[in-house]
C-alpha cells in the first residue's frame, strides 16, 4: 500500500476513525508486550517456543503478542488495527519488516482477542481463516492456559501458511513442466510439423483434400512475482473474536 494511505482496501475502515478513539500514543510493539505484568515466565516460555517454530519455518514473519486488560467498551479489533499502524518501529529493521507482522491482541478483561496481519500477508491470511484460528485457541484462553492459547494461534498460523506454500509449490511445478514441454526438442519438432501440415493443407485444397489439423496448445497461466516495498503506514486486515 502506498505511503500515506490510511484506508483498509478490504473493508474500507479508516485509520483516522480508530485514532479518534485512542487519543494517546501507541506503545512500541515487541515480541511480547504485557503492560500489567500478568504473564509469568512459564507462559512466556511456551509462547516464545511457539513463535520460534513459526519463525523457523517462515523467517520473514514477525509475530507480536499484546496481552493486557483494556478499558471497558474498547473494541479489541479496532485496538489491534490502531496499535499495529500507530506504534512506532523501534529500529530500521522493524520498520522494514512491519508489513510482515502479525499482531495477536488478547484482552483478559473481556476475554476477547484479535489478529491483525501486515499488508504482505493480506492475500494469504483471510478473515474467515483468522477467525477459525482464534476459535481453535478459545478453549485454552478461557481456561486461563494463556501460553497454550498463544501457542495454538501461532501453530494455526504456521499450519495455514504451510498449506498455502505447498499449494503454491504444486502450481509452480506444474507451470515449469508446461514451460519445459513447450521448449523441448519434441515441442519444436511438433511445431515444425504443424506448420508443414498447414502448408500441405493449403496446397491440397485445390484438389479437395482435407488433412487433419492439430489444435494449438492453450496455456492459462497466472503468474505473480516481484517484491513489495511497503511502508510502515500499510493498513492491515484485522479479525476479532469474543468468547
Structure description:
The chain has 243 residues and is α/β, with parallel strands linked by helices. Helix content is 47%, strand content 12%. The protein has seven helices and five strands; from the N terminus they run H-E-H-E-H-H-E-E-H-H-H-E. A five-stranded mixed β-sheet has the order 1-2-3-4-5, sandwiched between helices. Strand 3 and strand 4 (112-117) form a beta hairpin. The longest helix has 38 residues, at 146-183. The radius of gyration is 26 Å and the shape is elongated. The model is unreliable at 191-235 (pLDDT under 50).
Structural class: alpha/beta
The neighbouring-strand order within the major sheet is: 1-2-3-4-5
State the shape: elongated
Low-confidence stretches: 191-235
What is the radius of gyration computed over CA atoms, rounded to a whole number of angstroms? 26 Å
What is the percent of helical residues? 40-55%
> What portion of residues belong to β-strands?
5-15%
N-to-C series of helices and strands: HEHEHHEEHHHE
**How can the largest sheet be summarized?**
5 strands, mixed
Oligomer: single chain
Q: How many E strands? A: 5
Tally of individual helices:
7
Distance between the first and last residues' Cα: 33 Å
What is the arithmetic mean of pLDDT?
74
